[in-house]
Design brief:
The protein is α/β, with parallel strands linked by helices. The protein has 3 domains: 119 residues, Methylthiotransferase, N-terminal domain (Rossmann fold), CATH 3.40.50; 226 residues, Alpha-Beta Horseshoe (pyruvate-formate lyase- activating enzyme), CATH 3.80.30.20; 60 residues, Nucleic acid-binding proteins (OB fold (Dihydrolipoamide Acetyltransferase, E2P)). The chain has 14 helices and 21 strands. It has a 6-stranded parallel β-sheet with strand order 2-1-3-4-5-6, sandwiched between helices. Strands 17-18-19-21-20 form a 5-stranded mixed β-barrel. α1 links the parallel β1 and β2. α12 runs parallel beside α13. Bound molecules: 5'-deoxyadenosine and iron/sulfur cluster. The site of iron/sulfur cluster has 10 residues, from α6.
Amino acid sequence: MRIVRTLTVYCESFGCQMNAYDTDGIGALLEGCGHRIVGSPDAADCIIVNTCSVREHAEQRAIGRLLDLSRHREAVIVVCGCMAQRMGARLFDLVPAVKVVAGTDSYFLLPEAISNAVDNGERSVFIELGGSSVIETMPEKHEGPVSRYVAITRGCENYCSYCIVPYLRGKVRSRSVRSIMEEVDGLAESGAREVTLLGQNVIAFRDGSIGFGELARKVLDETPIRRLRFLTSHPRDVGADVFELMAAEKRFCSHIHLPVQAGSNRILEAMNRGYSRETYLAKVRMARSIVPDIAITTDIIVGFPSETDADFRETIDLVREAGFDAAFTFQYSPRSGTAASLLADDVPAETKKERLHALNSVVMEKRANMLGAQVGATAEILLDGAAQKGEYRFLKGRTPQFRNVLVPRENLREGDMVLVVLRRLANFTFEGEVVAER
Ligand code: 5AD
Ligand code: SF4
């Protein structure tokens, strides 16, 4: 690799946790080549934007941001991620300042492409999928926050009918257990206390005879990490083994993100989700019976093609029954190339908006109930940063259930684990009274 001089590089990330993780990895890769990551685009030689395509709105925002960043005329602009993968060279026309387009499997090509763009004004596009080596070659990161992500799989082949991800991120590939363990060890050494194992569907992880449950067990047994989380699991695939490990191992946090997407069987079928509302709710009951203190969060789409008021009411009923701690809610957005994009997008925009609004108020009501029931309880929290409240005299932390807690800073530090009594709840955040340090 030919590095002519040290460049200043500014990175920005849109979308999911996988993108956040990749953006970090790209930063570390470029630092490894002698470049310097900076916190503002103003004086940067190179600006990297990692993008999301899951909904049209996400792409519009990214395009808007790229046009905005184009004001930095001197900088080489690089687009990565799902929108780069989807649009390829078309991005040069949409945003003329863009010099490099690197899709989801091409980040290892960035150092050279960026040098060529800076030195010779050369444009390049990389959108080949399936470069499996990339998932093993993300460089180690140094000193960072106490809570870090580690990707264990990439890609998805579930082909939920609304979802563009399988087309943009390719088939499921699992990283090797060895490289995952090395990365977790490295993160622990550099100050991480908590790791979240990432994948579009982590339950699909497999390396030889080792599946997700065994991998989680190994990370708990063989690394010094104090807390383990995971994102995301497909409700069809998650089984009792994961919940049993959670029940047996305090460090395996009692939280699962289990996207339900819809509450009507007809819509679930049309979404190609591979489960019914009954089997979903049975998984929720299984989770709660094995891990009584578990928190469950979810994703929900409203306004999928042909969704009727009756279908939508089934979603509302399911939300009431399942008792989610939180839900991310979305209006259906047709993505070209997906199976659902061939169906008429026949729920009027106004109806989608009303349904989203109605759904959000039930989600918030349940969230308030679920959290309210915890006031007075004791919880162990990991302090992961300063809180803006009270001019930074508070630290923020999370319970194993991923609930937000603030505690007075006093002599505590980021990375400490403390036992608190959850005293008050405001804006879905607890105020905690520290009763013991761990
Ligand atoms: N329209 C709306 N929401 C979508 N999601 C995925 N694809 C679409 C789409 N076409 C949502 C799903 C998924 C989350 C990451 O984004 O709820 O779980
Ligand atoms: Fe998309 Fe379904 Fe795969 Fe999730 S599981 S990334 S919603 S295709």
